[in-house]
Inverse folding.
């Protein structure tokens, strides 16, 4: 009798990150990933039409999903902190997909938006996220840049950039300046949203 998969917990992931197969990051990036992708591309006969941004052929969509599922199960997820591979079974992955929420609310009050699954042929208007999205921004222009995005009525949520400096200092990783920069980014984006009349906008 086949065992029933149980939901994966954060503790399961931690343990697998400690005990999974050891591998160098280079072997993972330049060996496992491209070799597996090439094999699955051939297995499922995947051919992408470069003129079609979002695939609409249902057979291709299904094959892309199956290839992605196979790739996750075969490759697992690489943990750069332990140099090990976190492995999942097919049943665990499918259970996680089945158990995932089918909607959530992003933002607050009048700026709240409801995010729901959207198929390629859906008539629903997509959620528009605006912002520098992790790109470096000068300390001087950080707030005006984010205010410009928040002022656009079509933009539903903000994906913020990162400050190049904070109080003129380099926000070196794992330093107090990094903490200061992250805190300043949050406060300035919230202020930018407020100045644009979009208080409560998702971030």
């Amino acid at each position: 009798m086949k065992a029933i998969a149980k939901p994966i917990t954060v503790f399961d992931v931690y343990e697998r990150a400690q005990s999974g197969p050891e591998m160098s990051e280079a072997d993972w990036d330049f060996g496992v990933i491209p070799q597996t992708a090439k094999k699955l591309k051939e297995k499922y006969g995947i051919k992408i039409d470069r003129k079609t941004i979002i695939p609409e052929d249902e057979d291709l969509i299904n094959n892309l999903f199956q290839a992605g599922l196979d790739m996750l199960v075969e490759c697992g997820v690489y943990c750069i902190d332990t140099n090990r591979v976190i492995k999942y079974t097919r049943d665990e992955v499918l259970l996680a997909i089945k158990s995932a929420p089918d909607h959530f609310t992003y933002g607050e009050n009048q700026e709240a938006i409801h995010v729901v699954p959207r198929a390629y042929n859906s008539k629903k208007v997509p959620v528009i996220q605006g912002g520098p999205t992790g790109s470096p921004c000068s300390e001087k222009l950080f707030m005006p840049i984010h205010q410009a995005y928040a002022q656009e009525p079509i933009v539903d949520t903000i994906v913020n950039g990162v400050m190049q400096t904070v109080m003129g200092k380099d926000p070196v990783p794992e330093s107090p300046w990094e903490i200061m920069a992250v805190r300043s980014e949050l406060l300035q984006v919230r202020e930018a949203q407020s100045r644009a009349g979009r208080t409560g906008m998702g971030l």
